[in-house]
Amino acid sequence: NEIPHNEKLLSLKYESLDYDNSENQLFLEEERRINHAAFRTVEIKRWVICAMIGILTGLVACFIDIVVENLAGLKYRVVKDNIDKFTAKGGLSFSLLLWATLNASVVMVGSLIVAFIEPVAAGSGIPQIKCYLNGVKIPHVVRLKTLVIKVCGVILSVVGGLAVGKEGPMIHSGSVIAAGISQGRSTSLKRDFKIFEYFRRDTEKRDFVSAGAAAGVSAAFGAPVGLLTLGCISLQFFASMISTFTLNSVLSVYHGNAWDLSSPGLINFGRFDSEVGTGIPHGEGLDTALRSFGDINLSIISICRYIHRPCLQVVEAMLVAAVTATVGFVMIYCSRDCQPIQGSSVAYPLQLFCADGEYNSMATAFFNTPEKSVVNLFHDPPGSYNPMTLGMFTLMYFFLACWTYGLTVSAGVFIPSLLIGAAWGRLFGISLSYLTKGSIWADPGKYALMGAAAQLGGIVRMTLSLTVIMMEATGNVTYGFPIMLVLMTAKIVGDYFVEGLYDMHIQLQSVPFLHWEAPVTSHSLTAREVMSTPVTCLRRIERVGTVVDILSDTSSNHNGFPVVESNPDTTQVAGLRGLILRSQLIVLLKHKVFVERANLSLVQRRLKLKDFRDAYPRFPPIQSIHVSQDERECMIDLSEFMNPSPYTVPQVTSWQGVFKLFRALGLRHLVVVDNRNEVVGMVTRKDLARYRLGKEGLEELSLAQT
Fold first, then answer.
1. Model confidence over 219-269: pLDDT tens digits?
2. Partner residues linked to 564 by β-bridges
3. Separation CA 505–CA 296 (nearest Å)
């Protein structure tokens, strides 16, 4: 019963979020009651929420960093002592078994909690948050349980020695923190703190989730200014600043430098001097872009695996962890690249078969956390690495990273990309010195920085923002131009072949994701050709039984219903009067806001927006609401609750126009009407997302219940 991923399908299991406010009578009355003082109070609450998001995101990042540092340090010390012991008396196979067993055991726990408790916590979570901000409701993506599993899972993945990083998942973690704080309650814990009730709707929640994602990026890289290039608003920038400051303060105290503030992010590249020029040739960006293309394709192969049973996913993760340790051990064992230990900054130097006072250079790359390996490649002096050592490490780590991406573990791809790029970039710099007969154009560490930037740029396809982030992480603006050069080259070459890694991940999950622009070859289509029809409409004064039957119909499962004006005693349908959502109808039925047919003039129970916000976001299913046979004959007046001014388009509107309106306004439903204002169709996200630009022009995807 396993269903393989298929990028030619569009899944019907994903619902859209309501980013367009329903401006019904209840909403307008509440907005009119908000005076200037109340408005100021709401704005102050926004700033308070963003400050809380920044503080908690920074604290979570500190927790991850400190726990990883201690657990990974303990593991490497145990393995190092064992290797040193058996190097002298023989039997290094026991050291290999110990290393592989420790890795597999730790990764097994991390994979178990993801596979069996919260599968959405797998990976970095960036594609899922990108979909959420695009308007797609990904189940469980911003739950408290997801945050707990994500944090524990990423700690275990990094400590388990996988080719992963802990920085990418911070974006997902920050988003979950923001979603929880902004609502003032936890549906998982069933606790309502009765605060921030005004923000309990998708529009407000999205803004705070974006602030949480910004705080996560800032905590990962210590680069709040770089987020401004992504168009972040002041609240998001404020949250990212608070996150960086919190992380910096706590880690500085933890490391015994309370007033130094030298740890702005989880990954700290260290400061680069400007004494040596950075003559970075164009070939570096081109070469790393081509490697990014290969990385993307091999990563997609990893995603497309046909292993869907949780138990097999755990076994696979354990296998990869054991293979990673085995490859690292064999590479270290076979390497004869020995460097003097004096003056080096190696955390866990392995002597192995080197002479006294020397250490194995290959071990600095494999026998360490990926973050520290990146810093070593950036700052180790020239001559610290043999070209053969870097070449073999780059090749093997490349395939390990591609195999690891897509495992059922919580992990990010940022640090593996930086490490691969740094190794290849340093190798490129060393090769230049050989080709020019010892004339060093620049420190190999500078080439490592450019390679890391280009490799990461080929994955995420960002240019300006990533340039600023890299400059902030290095603490030197001198490298702005060469970093921009390699990032632009990487993006151009990568875009020529395939989309970015996260975009391809979204396609493989069959998510109805809408890009900023419509396909360029879609001018011939109109709203009439893409709309869904026939449309299930409700009358302004409708019979309760009819509403219950429509909501209970599993074959349609619609979430928005046009409201039309008509006489209850006739079947003649008149023009459009409004739009009402399934969630609103559920609340009306739950509170039984209806009257008997003979007493339509009676005043029904008055609902408030608070009743709808209390039910948000987990509205009860229609099956849980009991409606008696007598109640089915009652009538319900939708006038007060429907949106009387929904967005509409004529059926002759071009597909490009429909797409721009839908995408720019964050709509969930767009009603198509004829020249008499009668409803003829409905455009939803799936109607637009199913058309995509393929190799042979515009192609239509198939819809499937997967």
1. 888 767 656 545 557 888 899 999 999 998 998 888 887 777 767 767 777
2. 539, 576
3. 10
Rounded to 5 degrees, φ, ψ at 633 are -85, -10
The two three-digit tokens of residue 29, written as one number: 């009355």
At 572 the pLDDT is 53
Confidence of residue 605 (pLDDT cuts 50, 70, 90): low
Residue 4, class by beta-carbon neighbours within 10 Å (0-12 exposed, 13-18 middle, 19+ buried)?
A: exposed
pLDDT in tens, 343-395: 667 778 888 888 888 888 888 888 888 888 888 888 888 888 888 989 999 99
Mean pLDDT, rounded, for 685-698: 84
Hey, what are 96's tokens? 């290999």
Q: Which of 579, 589, 594, 578 is nearest to 549 (CA)?
A: 589
Q: Are 681 and 527 in contact (CB under 8 A)?
A: yes
DSSP designation for 479: G
- Cβ 563 vs Cβ 537: under 8 Å: yes
Q: Give the SS3 label for residue 187.
A: coil
Distance CA 606, CA 26 (A): 10
- Asked whether 368 and 345 are in contact (CB, 8 A), the reply is no
The string of pLDDT tens digits covering residues 412-447 is: 888 899 999 999 999 988 888 887 766 656 678 888
Q: Residue 338: which H helix or E strand, with range?
A: strand 338-340
Cβ neighbours around 1 below 10 Å, total: 4
- Structure tokens that stand for 639 in this block: 């006038």
Q: Round to whole Å and give the CA distance between 528 and 674.
A: 10
* Pairwise CA distance, residues 69 & 71, whole Å: 6
Burial level of 537, CB count in 10 A (0-12/13-18/19+)? Answer: buried
* 3-state SS assignment for residue 499: coil
DSSP annotation of 4 reads: -
Region for residue 675 given its phi and psi (left: phi exceeds 0; alpha: psi -120 to 50; beta: otherwise): alpha
3 state SS of 165? strand
Sign of CA dihedral 4, 10, 16, 20: positive
What per-residue confidence (pLDDT) applies to 661?
A: 92
The answer to whether the beta carbons of residues 433 and 440 sit under 8 Å apart is: yes
pLDDT at position 189 over 70: yes
Distance CA 444, CA 431 (A): 10
Spatial distance between the Cα atoms of 588 and 595, rounded to a whole number of angstroms? 12
Residue 408 amino acid letter:
T
Residue among 102, 168, 225 at smallest CA distance from 475:
225
Res 632 pLDDT > 50: yes
- Where are any strands of DSSP class E within 12-152? 15-16, 136-137
Q: What's the pLDDT band for 598 if we cut at 50, 70, 90?
A: low
pLDDT confidence bin for 283, thresholds 50/70/90 = very low
Which residues neighbour 295 within 8 Å (Cβ) at sequence distance 6 or greater? 398, 401, 402, 417, 420, 455, 458, 459, 501
Q: Locate 432 and state its tokens.
A: 């230049």
The C-alpha angle with vertex 584 and arms to 579 and 588, in degrees rounded to 5, equals: 120
Structure tokens at 664: 């720019």
Decide which of 140 and 573 is more confident.
140
DSSP string, 559-579: SEEEEE---TT------EEEE
Q: What are phi and psi of 157, to 5 degrees?
A: -65, -45
Tell me which of 215-229, 401-415, 528-542 is least confident: 215-229
- With 0-12 CB in 10 A as exposed, 13-18 as middle and 19+ as buried, what is 639? middle
Contact between 244 and 61 (Cβ < 8 Å)? no
